[in-house]
Amino acid sequence: MRYVSTRGQAPVLTFEEAMLTGLARDGGLYVPETVPHMPARDIAALAGLSYEEAAFRIMRPFVGDAFTDAEFAAIIERAYAGFDHPARAPLAQLGPNHFLLELFHGPTLAFKDFAMQLIGQLFQASLERSGKRITIVGATSGDTGSAAIEAFRGLDNVDVFILFPEGRVSDVQRRQMTTPSEDNVHALALKGDFDDCQARVKDMFNDFAFRDRVGLSAVNSINWARVLAQVVYYFTSAVSLGAPHRPVRFTVPTGNFGDIFAGHIAQRMGLPIEKLVIATNQNDILHRALTGGAYETHGVTPSISPSMDIQVSSNFERALFEAYGRDGAAVAQQMDALKSQGGFTISQGALQGLRETYASGRASEDETRATIRALHATTGEVLCPHSAVGVKVAQDQPDSAAPMITLATAHAAKFPDAVEEATGLRPPLPARMADLFARSERMTGVENDLAALETLIEERRRA
Ligand SMILES: Cc1ncc(COP(=O)(O)O)c(C=O)c1O
Ligand SMILES: N[C@@H](CCOP(=O)(O)O)C(=O)O
């Protein structure tokens, strides 16, 4: 299995190389050269397997010979051992044809744990073999950062630096990042928004001298392995509702587009997905792009679903690469326009292709609160604001016989203020993190300045 860049100019890599490399050296994102097909009988055979067994069968073809079967199976077992729910990703029923895929039973209470716990294990296995050291620099709007810190804290051969937008993550999210005491972990509060954090991380990858000096690696969905891990729960949930004999639909609360792109990969592998619905909050660039054809950044507006406060949606580049028939030069041109002019127009052909796969919708702040309130009153389910954006957009979709599965991407307890405002109920943290607000915090305030950030990272990382 080989991996190519969405901009067509970077070296072709193996799975392990792509995982450790992060951003391609032409600024693009790695994707598999071909997507392996899973025949209907193999999809049907996933029914009744444990999450770990299904994960092995679904991901194995992407990994090539990087790990033996036994190594890869053991990595998967370790990755999901710390989840609170035996099913890992259970389904709850919200209505006659509407289901909620609960992705918040991992160690940091968000869907990011599914991928981060896996890549934590993959990185460790690979680094133990090579004896290399790496420096991870990640950008977060709240959940990726805590999941990454949880997966990599205390490792001797890894230093982790997480940039988060100062004052724009919830108190729980911030404390999950600032309370770990291990000296390989650094939480950096940046004066700016998530787009600034992500742009600085990509700038660091494009500074080859810095990148090579510190052994830079990515844990954002820049990293293909992050996307791959998220393909699994599309299969497990769809199969439990009758796939491959019955098609399904998914609505995905979307920001950086990694999660929903994983759904597209599942579809390309052969899972019968009728539609993938992009659900956005008021930062609705993806909804505007899909409905109007213009991808234009308007600046990030803080919302009650802060993890989706994103305008430069990194993985949309992977979707464009597919929509443009894998034309790396066309993608590079659009990404240059995004950087220099703040936007671009999607060609009619590409837009049509995107609309065949994706639909979209937007939920306002009031609609999000009303959805949390209504769902709690009618079903007892307490949604986080991101999941509520998904449920609202799913409810707005045209009728179909195919069941709708909405992804619940975080636990309500990560956003207690928004949930309390909507329901009057303050969701408690699980017992294992009940003392989160008693722990002392450690973070560094930083300017949105590439040179200053690189200096800080070089000074703090353990050589
Ligand atoms: C809770 C939550 N929901 C939804 C999203 C959006 O996911 P993606 O960036 O993969 O589109 C994020 C962040 O990425 C998140 O943290
Ligand atoms: N919402 C994310 C943003 C980063 O997304 P990623 O999938 O690229 O890591 C977060 O919580 O940080």
What would your notes on this structure say?
- There is one protein chain.
- With 463 residues, the chain is of the alpha/beta class.
- It has a domain at 91-106 and 224-423: 3-Layer(aba) Sandwich (Rossmann fold).
- It is built from 19 helices and 16 strands.
- Strand 6, helix 6 and strand 7 form a beta-alpha-beta unit.
- The radius of gyration is 20 Å and the shape is globular.
- The two termini are 33 Å apart.
- The relative contact order is 0.14.
- The ligand N[C@@H](CCOP(=O)(O)O)C(=O)O is lined by residues 140-145, 220-221, 255-256, 258, 307, 314.
- Keywords: Amino-acid biosynthesis, Lyase, Pyridoxal phosphate, Threonine biosynthesis.
- InterPro entries: Ser/Thr_deHydtase_PyrdxlP-BS, Thr_synth_N, Thr_synth_N_sf, Thr_synthase-like, Threonine_Synthase, TrpB-like_PALP, TrpB-like_PALP_sf.
- Pfam families: PALP, THR4_C, Thr_synth_N.
Question: What is the general shape?
Answer: globular
Q: Any idea what the CATH architecture of the domain at 91-106 and 224-423 is?
A: 3-Layer(aba) Sandwich
Summed over residues and divided by their number, the pLDDT gives a mean of 98
Q: Strand order across the biggest sheet?
A: 4-5-15-10-11-14
The helix fraction, in percent, is: 40-55%
* Ligand kinds: pyridoxal-5'-phosphate, the ligand N[C@@H](CCOP(=O)(O)O)C(=O)O
- For this structure, what is the CATH class of the domain at 91-106 and 224-423? Alpha Beta
Number of helical regions: 19
> What value does the Rg take, in angstroms?
20 Å
Largest sheet properties = 6 strands, mixed
Write down how many β-strands occur, each being a DSSP E stretch of 2 or more residues. 16
Modified residues (N6-(pyridoxal phosphate)lysine): 112
Pfam family, one: THR4_C
Enzyme class: lyase
Family: Belongs to the threonine synthase family.
